[in-house]
């Protein structure tokens, strides 16, 4: 085939492959029949996994000191905790690298079908502790650094979170990577190496959220391997000219070319040798700087192209659930991010596949690509482009490959979160992809399938089209992801039902029910129990008489705890651990905010991104209601009340005005009530700034009750609810997302439910809009609270009017409809907490019966592997 494409275009490695040799005397020679001939003694060494490093305390100490002196170039005489963290990390990394190399080598040799998880977000948190746990070297490192005069806790605390994500979707991707490696599945992640992760949240004296950059790469990042030789060119703009030879091919040329450079992050499995890869792309200018401008003395212009190229991966977009607040430039850059990442990832995947020497028609037999929400949907037209324009396949052959390779997970049904891109913007940035999208519309919808199945149904065609009419026209990414994928799934039973009956209903009727499934989300018990709550983990091992290596990989074993609920000593130990976790949190609040927390109270926690649908506002209005009730009581009456400490944490998107007002209200309510001598023994409130994975690891084990109170039908799954349960925290929630399935497992008597159900929501909204009842009538208790805020009980009431008006007018998230039952549910929580012994039993049952097996990401990832990707575990020889 003659190439009609600029030789520098996408998909071609920029540097030619190098000539490589095998280290003589260490590895087998492979003869023509594929038989291996090993150098003497080496086969045993490699295959038993003994090539990994010596890991006794002495050799660890040696490796630590060695890294201090060589890699860090520092004196062992004046090392601080940060230096000690870096040395420990580098030494642990050596272990990961040996396993990583072995894993990749064996994947290449065994050539199993692989899955690739494309996610714009990976919210990894810290790595050192997790790597130590997964390698089984925690005790050795603890002893080693202690012998050198350091404490492992202080060292671990020096690590900055890798916060390359907003919330649930990004953390889910991180849990899935942990589980893939732990289940020995050949899965790689692909994402972007943002220079700045999610912004740091500061709170001003007035209670306003301020945003500061998160320069997480400020210090050397020991967990990544720059692969400066793994690079691809990615094109933007230019022009696409269709060939008129009837082949359907086009030439895309001109425009801007940017270089994608790979950075690899090692993902170790728990108790296995499998160490998978997360490949993150960094953008940089292909040509360095513009020499002509430089020579003419115009230095700014000379570096302009380099700046515009590196801008693509410079920052994670802090908007979850909507991009509507972005201006034109912001939108264009986000679109460029998405294409840059999908193009580089696909080129890399195809290069690896082609090295196997198989025809492209076999791609779906060896490659499954998972689209984490619609963000990587451009991969669909991109693969079409490569197959048609570069590989000379026919449209039909290409479409068959594409629709058997991709899988799409939807993470939200909120209309504002469904991605749409303006057609003129796509045409400008990706002219060839816009042509392909139009071709899909014409070939699939209008003339072929849909028209045939539903002749003359114009409305249906318009509803299903990839293009939404309007000014401007928009591309509907969820439709493209759906039509281009082998299977589609939601993330909890209720949510998957909603996907099938609302946003993708027409597609279910068109393509059949079996394409649309459910995989309920899960969490990794390694991080969310063993690491964040080591004492509870130890108690569980002791009680079950099982090493944690067994139950951490089979959480159904936790059911064995049930019979101990009647054991008094066990209950006492269980309660004592919860108490110590509360003290750990209180210590954190004292050292970071200088505030003293009452650890004898019930700890009530709501931690998640700030959003109207998650209804932090309902929670804070409930707190005010409680405060007003306490104020009306006599001191004697108050004495009978349960003490409660309420914690909030979460970030608001920088342009999300209403969500920021909620933060402001929380902070100012805290200021008043924490200082009120009449009530402060019974009710206090804290907003902990800068929520992160690491902060969650402290908050979750300390919680007695946590709140998951979204308007029914809006929270796709929620995954922190699972984390709280695993740590013996009870749930107060609406009948929404994963709350429902958790209650099915733990029993409704262990979950506090309230509020309207999903089917009622639409009617209530309709009523609010067309037959509004004044809030004083609809919910007097809430009206009273709103009036107190307006009247200035917590400072200038006028400031909060826009927030309060969202409830008084329209009340889209139904606070006034759910407020009374919310207050009742809180009272039930109080009643239950009064019988402390029974509460502890509930807590134990929640951990045990949450049949937490179901909510382990191991279960979830195995479902994807079996029912979606069709990949198998590929054990690495020498696995522990
Ligand atoms: C700005 C565009 C945009 C739109 C949606 C960015 C990010 C999103 C995500 C889909 C938002 C998200 O994180 N969804 C969450 O996904 C979790 C994992 O499945 C669920 O547990 C949460 O319920 C869901 O809100």
From TrEMBL:
GO term, biological process aspect, one: glycogen catabolic process
Tree of life domain: Eukaryota
Sequence positions bearing N6-(pyridoxal phosphate)lysine: 723
InterPro entries named in the record: Glycg_phsphrylas, Glyco_trans_35, Pyridoxal_P_attach_site
Keywords, alphabetical: Allosteric enzyme, Carbohydrate metabolism, Cytoplasm, Glycosyltransferase, Pyridoxal phosphate, Transferase
Compartments it resides in: Cytoplasm
Catalytic activity: [(1->4)-alpha-D-glucosyl](n) + phosphate = [(1->4)-alpha-D-glucosyl](n-1) + alpha-D-glucose 1-phosphate
Residue ranges that the Swiss-Prot or TrEMBL entry lists as coiled coil: none
Pfam families, alphabetized: Phosphorylase
Example of a GO MF term: pyridoxal phosphate binding
Any one of the GO CC terms: cytoplasm
Cofactor: pyridoxal 5'-phosphate
CDD domains (alphabetical): GT35_Glycogen_Phosphorylase
EC numbers: 2.4.1.1
Family: Belongs to the glycogen phosphorylase family.
Role played: Allosteric enzyme that catalyzes the rate-limiting step in glycogen catabolism, the phosphorolytic cleavage of glycogen to produce glucose-1-phosphate, and plays a central role in maintaining cellular and organismal glucose homeostasis.
PANTHER family attached to this UniProt entry: GLYCOGEN PHOSPHORYLASE (PTHR11468), GLYCOGEN PHOSPHORYLASE, LIVER FORM (PTHR11468:SF3)
Descriptive protein name: Alpha-1,4 glucan phosphorylase
Native organism: Collybia nuda
